[in-house]
Amino acid sequence: MTKLPFDESRPKHGKMVLDEERILEILRDAHWGTLATVSADGEPHGVPVGFAYDEDKGCFYFHTANKGVKIDNIKRDSRVCFSIVGSAELVTARFAAQYESVVIYGNMQKIEDRQEAFDAALFYCNKFAPKLTAAQDVADMAVLMEKGFEYMAMYKLTPTHIGGKCRKVLAKD
């Protein structure tokens, strides 16, 4: 397991900071987050995407189309921000919310090496469709993925900083 990259120079949220083990649990269990990129004119672009976190390599894998706004933005500027909500609950009696969230800053790149892309796609598929991948022969999966690489790609986010935050609403006295 790779140690999570924390940037001690970033502001802390006191008692609201998630510990590393809870952050890892969220990264293991969550399937979706919001990926933010920036367009050429500085406009932010956020899009919900599926992801798989490879704890051993300390990186995130994303499956996406070969074309689109986020791809154009990443090609121009690889810096991204990725946020995940681990849990959330409205506490309407207190006009408040309880939540856990993780924010990842880093650089995102298309995986150009075919073997690395295949390994990343298999890792991703194991998270999203474990029964399907368990039932498939690896050679059959390779044929399917090779055809898929014509219109889709695997991307890797290498984090420079990961932080987690939570808010617990205390019971009213």
Give a brief rundown of this model.
This protein is an alpha+beta fold.
Can you describe this structure?
The relative contact order is 0.23. The chain is globular. It has helices at 20-29, 69-76, 114-128, 130-135, 138-148; strands at 32-38, 44-50, 52-54, 59-65, 79-91, 96-110, 152-167. Helices cover 29% and strands 39% of the residues. A seven-stranded antiparallel beta sheet has the order 2-1-5-6-7-4-3. It has a domain at 14-113 and 153-167: Electron Transport, Fmn-binding Protein, Chain A (Pnp Oxidase, Chain A, Roll). The model has no long low-confidence stretch (mean pLDDT 85). The chain contains five helices and seven strands; from the N terminus they run H-E-E-E-E-H-E-E-H-H-H-E. By secondary structure, the chain is of the alpha+beta class.
Q: What's the N-to-C terminus distance?
A: 43 Å
Q: Which strand order do you get reading across the main beta sheet?
A: 2-1-5-6-7-4-3
What is the name of the CATH architecture of the domain at 14-113 and 153-167?
Answer: Roll
Q: Oligomeric form of this entry?
A: single chain
Count of alpha/pi helices: 5
Class of secondary structure makeup: alpha+beta
Write the CATH fold name of the domain at 14-113 and 153-167.
Answer: Pnp Oxidase, Chain A
State the low-pLDDT regions, or none. Answer: none
Question: On the 0-100 scale, what is the average pLDDT?
Answer: 85
Which H/E pattern describes the elements?
HEEEEHEEHHHE
Q: Into which percentage range does the β-strand content fall?
A: 35-45%
- What is the general shape? globular
CATH superfamily of the domain at 14-113 and 153-167: Electron Transport, Fmn-binding Protein, Chain A
